[in-house]
TrEMBL record:
It comes from the Bacteria. InterPro entries: Emfourin (IPR049457). Residues 1-30 are annotated as: Disordered. This is Protealysin inhibitor emfourin.
Amino acid sequence: MSEIRVTRRGGFAGQDVSGRLDTRRTPGGAELEAIVKRHGKRPRLPRAASSDAPTYTIQAGGERIEVSETELTGELATLVHRVLGNRGL
């Protein structure tokens, strides 16, 4: 794994926002990869998303994590913020 991609879809404005992060060139990149691995292995129950609430797709090293805005907490929120910056939250 050397790249983490995050896409935010939907939300009130309906605009998609995407970003990429090269973990080899980013301080703390190994920890961000570990977050993806931990959460990629956990089963998630689908939650009904509000029509105004965005959803997030996180992809790295064959892992794909999809979460609603209400599920975006803790270290997943940290990861998204690192990849998208202020554009994604």
